[in-house]
Amino acid sequence: MTAEDVASVLPERAAAERLALTLAGVSKVFGRGPAAVHALDKVSLTVAAGEFVCLVGASGCGKSTLLSLVAGLDQPTGGTIDVAGGARPGLMFQEPALFPWLTVAGNVGLPLRLRKVPRAERAVRVSALLRTVHLAEFGKRRPHQLSGGMRQRVAMARTLALDTPVLLMDEPFGALDAMTRDILHDEIERIWQERALTVLFVTHNVREAARLGDRIVLLSSRPGRVVADWRVEVPRPRRIDSPEIAAVAAEVTDRLREEVRRHGR
Amino acid sequence: MTAEDVASVLPERAAAERLALTLAGVSKVFGRGPAAVHALDKVSLTVAAGEFVCLVGASGCGKSTLLSLVAGLDQPTGGTIDVAGGARPGLMFQEPALFPWLTVAGNVGLPLRLRKVPRAERAVRVSALLRTVHLAEFGKRRPHQLSGGMRQRVAMARTLALDTPVLLMDEPFGALDAMTRDILHDEIERIWQERALTVLFVTHNVREAARLGDRIVLLSSRPGRVVADWRVEVPRPRRIDSPEIAAVAAEVTDRLREEVRRHGR
Amino acid sequence: MAADTLSGLDALDLAGRESGGSTLSRVWAATWPKVLALAFVLGIWQVVYWSGWREPWVLPEPREVFADLARATATADFWHAIATTLRRGLVGFALAAGIGLVLGAAVARVAPLRAALGSAITALQTMPSIAWFPLAILLFQISENAILFVVVLGAAPSIANGVISGVDYVPPLLLRAGRNFGARGLALYRYVVAPASLPAIVSGLKQGWAFAWRSLLAGELLVIIAHRPALGVRLQGLREQNDAVGVISTMIVIFVIGVLADTVFSYADRRLRRAWGLA
Amino acid sequence: MAADTLSGLDALDLAGRESGGSTLSRVWAATWPKVLALAFVLGIWQVVYWSGWREPWVLPEPREVFADLARATATADFWHAIATTLRRGLVGFALAAGIGLVLGAAVARVAPLRAALGSAITALQTMPSIAWFPLAILLFQISENAILFVVVLGAAPSIANGVISGVDYVPPLLLRAGRNFGARGLALYRYVVAPASLPAIVSGLKQGWAFAWRSLLAGELLVIIAHRPALGVRLQGLREQNDAVGVISTMIVIFVIGVLADTVFSYADRRLRRAWGLA
Amino acid sequence: GGSPQKASGAGDPVTLRLGYFPNLTHATPIVGIKKNFYADKLGRNVAIEAKTFNAGPEAVEALFSGAVDATYIGPNPTVNAWQKSKGQAVRVVAGAASGGAAFVVKPDITGPEQLKGKKIASPQLGNTQDVALRYWLKQHGLNTTKEGGGDITILPQANADTVTAFGTGAIDGAWVPEPFASRLVKAGGKVLVDERDLWPGGKFVVTNLLVSTKFLKAHPDVVKNLIAGQVEANDFINANPVEAQQVVNAAIGELSGKVPDAKQTADAWKTLTFLNDPIASSLRDGARHAEEVGLLQPVDLTGIYDLTLLNEVLKARGAPEVKV
Ligand SMILES: Nc1ncnc2c1ncn2[C@@H]1O[C@H](COP(=O)(O)OP(=O)(O)OP(=O)(O)O)[C@@H](O)[C@H]1O
Ligand SMILES: Nc1ncnc2c1ncn2[C@@H]1O[C@H](COP(=O)(O)OP(=O)(O)OP(=O)(O)O)[C@@H](O)[C@H]1O
Ligand SMILES: [Mg+2]
Ligand SMILES: [Mg+2]
């Protein structure tokens, strides 16, 4: 490698450095033969560091599959996925996936324990996280003693405890009432800004996507492909019931509706 | 009992007959001693036969607990629950609760099998139900091969296969995209009218409640109490994005917001 | 019809899941069936005895057996025998548990090991204790270790199989969650796989205890040591003497120890289920 | 760093879960570890033999044992012995499975039965086979039924315990779903409890088979019939003749049968896991 | 259980269930059955059903439970059966074999004085060989305890394991019956005591014929014919030892799946005598010895023998009668 090469490569690399996620022609096929399901087909997508990207699409279009691939929990059938810095992204699953043998505090504290955070510090962080999701008094409960929405919030706190620079969230607020959700929108936005996180956020609620995202990416159904990509220009702080958000949501909804119709549903 | 008594009682009883569900002072306490959780406190509620009642409330306020009591899966700590005709209501759980050892068709067909519906008729009914939830081609799949939203739709089809006059649904459309949900709103409304069902429907989506419900009942948090009860006068067919529905939703949302705020969240 | 009535129908379905009631009524609910069962067995036995179906030296009277048991319990040898056998059983079981857990954990998650040893574990489990006696003597001469060897070979495969079955059925979602949290290798085992398979492991340990105990009672015949009476030796000795009374009273002792062992496992199991929200 | 690399780290964690690859490579992956393990064991044995650690009549050479095995397999008696013992094993196991499943199902869901018998089941499981011999002869005289009796008493408790453990860990949500669908009593068992506890039941059946087989090899000594050779009698006979070569070659036969039995259970288990999305 | 058949009239068919062990000291019943000596004497009306046992306890259990009517068995279980049933269940009606036990030790042990501190095996606490060992040691001034303590450690152990243990040097000797004694010699042991040398005339019971009292009372004629068959069998064995060995080896092979080594059988055979006299004195002396070394509660053996039928048979053949 010559000196010139290095010079010419550097700016490019710097640009690449700012990309947190790069998906290039990612495909995922489940099973083999005639029963094979083409969940994702040549999805290409880049997410800049610090960007908040919302992923929308019809039920079963491959959103969860995509997150799972990005998290490195599954292997793509084709294409490549690059996570800047090689850090494993934190994933909040669509189901709460709480460990039944641990208390709420134990669940939230597990990622800390795995990183060998000392006990005292752990206790402080866990109670801060539980406060964030408004479950401060529930640390000693077991998952089976919680309501559906509470479980989802515990899962969110646990994912936040991961402290990864890239966060993947699969419908984190699906089981929450509008009020609690609004509050958590503020919380996640605050944390995202504080920690300068990169977030890939799956939701069915287009308003939610418009409320939170820098970008909204629309996936088509079977096979999943990126069919639209909006930049949400509404300045923050945003309110979910503001007319600007409603306008963005309306546009996305129209496109989504068209997409779903095209696939016969 | 004298003849006069009978005469005077009859009209009353006729009125009572038209009630599908009667909850009188129902309380539910989990655990004992200082750790006891008062999930429901003296909830009284009646649902007329053929009525579509939506239940809203903050996360963890006791909605699922209430449905579980009405379904007879749990015993109330106090009060009584009467289901007209003694028929056990069908319950669609908040989680899909699919049986992993059965295919999608097997899951949907199980309630029919338990009622000893002959195989041929069962096949016809199962495929009709799968068509209703737009999963016609997925009958042979296993639950673990489905997406979150698909699983929820299978659970809905399975609950519809129960053919009970009273249907309890716990956030049936929480994991669905807006389009699929709109379609299923139409489907459930159609089935409700066709079968003259009584429905008790838990949702976090206030618009959804306004779109579907004859009434919307608001539950407060810990302990859960009925704090408001609206009659939705918007004539059917309704559209979820119509201004009338938005107006109803706004009213309910305001009250709900107030309720949540009162409880410090 | 009230929902109460409906759920009344489920009362039987809920057996063993309901935990309510006062302490007294719980103790009573746990006791009367045992007492009844015991009375039933003793009753049948006594009636058969009275019927004169078999001579008393073949099928002795309950009274005689309990008298013998009472006599035996008054001797130091009896308690020494129990103590010796229990000690061997516990040591052997602990060894077997250690080996079985490690073996099971390794075989469950390392594909080549599983291909190599998976079936061998069950095959070893089916090998009768006496088949190991020559090898035990070869390796350990006439020593307590020979007994432990037989006990470990009897129980470890069973425990390993419990672990394997538990690990195989860990919900994939929990595994994925654990891996996403950065749990790898041992950490994944410690924080996810092990706790998730704990129910199957406890069940495997229980089966392992039964294997250990049976192997022990056979294996004790390998090493009959000075001044150290043991239950296995006692049982065999009484049987050699065709002492029906003694054999039955020793069986009662073994039975009681079995019940106590089960109580320990059941306790662990119940705590587990309570924590998991299953009981 | 690519996600591929990251997941590469998990390769070991995924052992036994990955099913991809061609048939040939799958067969190869399943075979080489077994061959290696076998070669390893044989190698050690041969080296120990060559070292002259023990006299050849105590620890014979592998070659000699396999020659003996080859000779034995050429005789009709050998195959008769295997056939007789296998038949008894299968009949006894089927009986034990029937009794164990019914007993386990009943005890798991009927609280008083559980209180009465729960611990007794484990206690019976720990009772050595020889303790049952007198009762077996008393009840069944010298007949095949005496053997079956011992086998059933050995295996049924283990199977019942598997069922109980399985039933105890059925996810309550699925139970509630079943009950909501109108499944009561037997129907709830048939459509929800039984399939949900199938993994634990298969695991219990596997343990039960091991108990059955061990009890059988001991119990066969109860009824020794001319011209009906049996593996248990053969093992004991060779042991009494101090025929180390014969004992080891019979152990190999028992081992191979154990491996085959495990293959059957593993197959059932793998199918189950595949259907449930666990493998 | 069809044991207590009603007294047989002339024409009633009877089944005689006879137990024995597939083992050298049971050559009498093996030859008797294989060569039809019993069948010939019992006639067409009596079917003989052979039952084979692995060890004494099962045989006694079977006798007690009515699963067999008679069985060949060693002296030790004989005394147990007598004692446990308070002298009611069984009677010894004939002997079958004598001898066949020895004290084999490592070659460097040449006398009792060298045994101090050594480990010696016996088949089972309180059995014939165990008693013989302890009594012999006592006579030579060495004391032992029931629990295995004393000057010498006695390890009761299954005979098969004893041979293995001797082979690995884990024990220094053992007092065992044939064919284990021969095997110990083959494994480098040396006979220190041949038990025949300790008994008058070199005879002591190792196998006798035990009959259930019920059967004996119900079918004395059948038992008499059984004894007659055995006498013929013993005569044949003594006249044709080589053929008898072949028959016995074949029968053991048939039952256990493996024919024993002919040479080993021949070696062990030399230490055995097949005879009809139960050698009552050796049984009684054995019991007395057991009492002396503290292994047996005093037991009254009066009436255990019922040799009238045997003596009738012997008398008819012009052979000398035996005495209790
Ligand atoms: N293990 C699997 N085997 C076979 N098919 C699968 C598997 N996992 C997912 N699929 C299929 O892949 C497609 C995409 O599933 P995915 O879970 O990614 O959808 P999704 O976009 O998250 O849907 P939802 O919004 O309903 O959660 C679906 O058609 C699903 O049936
Ligand atoms: N088994 C239990 N043990 C103890 N507490 C419980 C149990 N089940 C529910 N609770 C508590 O009862 C309250 C009501 O729970 P429920 O599941 O009914 O809420 P919900 O209204 O359905 O909430 P969500 O909207 O989040 O699903 C919660 O505070 C919960 O923690
Ligand atoms: Mg999804
Ligand atoms: Mg809920």
Automatic annotation (TrEMBL), chains A, B:
Gene Ontology terms for molecular function: ATP binding; ATP hydrolysis activity
Xref: SMART domains: AAA (SM00382)
Pfam families reported for this sequence: ABC_tran
Swiss-Prot/TrEMBL keywords: ATP-binding, Nucleotide-binding, Transport
Signal sequence, start to end: none
Residue ranges of domain ABC transporter in the record: 21-246
Record keyword Electron transport present: no
The keyword ATP-binding belongs to this UniProt entry's keyword annotation: yes
Name the UniProt record assigns to this protein: ABC transporter ATP-binding protein
Organism encoding this protein: Planosporangium flavigriseum
Organism lineage string: Bacteria, Bacillati, Actinomycetota, Actinomycetes, Micromonosporales
TrEMBL record, chains C, D:
Subcellular location: Cell membrane
Record key words, sorted: Cell membrane, Membrane, Transmembrane, Transmembrane helix, Transport
PROSITE patterns recorded: ABC_TM1
TM helices/strands, residue ranges: 35-53, 89-108, 115-140, 146-167, 188-205, 211-231, 243-268
GO biological process, one term: transmembrane transport
Superkingdom in the source lineage: Bacteria
Pfam families: BPD_transp_1 (PF00528)
All copies of domain ABC transmembrane type-1, residue ranges: 82-266
Membrane topology reported for the UniProt record: Multi-pass membrane protein
GO cellular component: plasma membrane
Family the entry assigns: Belongs to the binding-protein-dependent transport system permease family.
Protein's recorded name: Sulfate ABC transporter permease
Organism: Planosporangium flavigriseum
